[in-house]
Amino acid sequence: MLCKAIKDLVLTDYLDQQLDGELKGNIESHLATCPDCAAFARDVQKTLADPFKSIVRQKVPERVWESIKANIPVKVSLADKVTGLLERITPVFSFPRLSPILAGVAVMLIVGATVFYGQQAKQVRVKEQVEYLAYLLTPADPQESENSSMETPIEKYFL
Ligand SMILES: [Zn+2]
Q1: How close is the Cα of 51 to the center of ligand 1, in Å?
Q2: What separation, in Å, do the N-terminal and C-terminal C-alpha atoms of the chain show?
């Protein structure tokens, strides 16, 4: 029973050198006293561990990486799509005779929009000022002027 457990560990964690401290010590002391398990451990080491020790990491030829890269589907981002679209549109702007006209139209549109929104904003400001002045000039609400004379309706009733 103990030998089976030892052999299981020799095949797994002991082989992978994943054991620490006490358990590893227990296994090694068992291996020192049990010829059967010691033979098993040597066998495992020789057939399962040693062959991998001499392995050298092979250098992958650059063309293999290139081929892998070429075969990975590329997810096109929105930014790339916009860039692609702009790249398709730009020839229009690089058309020699049309370019200044388009640039002029663009400038006019920008200036026009700026002036238009500026005027709208100004109108809003003027409207606000007029409303504020109107509010200041409006005679106070009769109810409010009564209150401002420090008399509540009840006081007025009794006085
Ligand atoms: Zn044993």
Answers
A1: 25
A2: 110
Calculate how far, in angstroms, residue 10's C-alpha sits from the geometric centre of ligand 1. 11
What beta strand segments (E) does 56-138 contain?
Answer: none
| 23 Cα to the center of ligand 1, angstroms | 14
- 3-state SS class at 151: coil
Question: Could you report the per-residue pLDDT of 114-147, keeping only the tens digit for each?
Answer: 888 787 777 777 778 888 878 777 776 655 555 5
Query: Is 80:88 a contact under the CB 8 Å cutoff?
Result: no
Name which of 56, 48, 57 is nearest 12 in CA terms.
48
Alpha carbon of 143 to ligand 1 centroid (Å): 106
pTM value?
A: 0.36
Q: Give me ligand 1 centre to Cα 127, in Å.
A: 99
26/36 Cα distance (integer angstroms): 16
